Here is the input.
Amino acid sequence: MALRREPEKHANHERWLVSYGDLLTLMLAVFVVLYAMSQADKKKTEEVSRSIQSSFGMATADSSSPKINVISSTQINPIPDIKSALAVTPGSKARSGSWRTRPKAAEPDFLQIKSSIEAFLVKEGAQNKVNVELTRRGVVVSLKEAGFFNSGSAFLKKESEVILSAIAEALNRYSNTFRVEGHTDNVPIHSGEFRSNWELSTMRATNVLHYLIDASGISPESVSAVGFGEYRPITDNDTSEGRQKNRRVDIVLLAGEAEVAEPAHNLQLDKVRIITLKQ
Here is the structure.
């Protein structure tokens, strides 16, 4: 008896539905996770929003829409101006109080003095008239001849007084002593007023010193003047540019050993220093 063969089964072309169902399940899981994350981010976003509104003076506690808080005009302080912070009107006193009671300038103070003066010079467009440096001696403020004196003259230019007053105010906050030092180039001076460059440099330093004392309130005890003539150049005198740099008046706020080396204000203190140095 012959065996009966079962008819062949047709191929199932709908197997892809199983994979498709798995894919939909995974996508549903992904969207559920994303939704949960979005709710957490929404909370954080609201917190950030409230923080920003509070920083800008906007209140949202009792209303759905933010309200800007009104600031009274009496609560508004003007932003301090560099010039007003430093400059002193010529003829007025820069700072009241005893010079001896002021604090001693330390290294951070010297950096602040330098930055303050440089910022003022930038504001006034006077960077080419004054140079400020930090040295072992202290802060050296160099007044270039072209900005403060006419050639061969020891009289201060009137337009230079505002800059000089600002410099004086920056230096007059501390009890450090300072010196005004006059310098020239090596070209001999031909003038009936000055015998040599010694006299010219000394007179320029002295005139700057008088302005600092008379117009800017600097204590006479804290300052001295000296003339070096042509013998302390900062560069060669071989070129006109070099000679121009050497013609200057330096205001030096002394620090450390440089200040200790200055003469004492009375003989008793001077003797104490001598004894200390010997020991």
Notes: The two ends are 137 Å apart (CA to CA). The first strand starts at residue 58 and ends at 59.
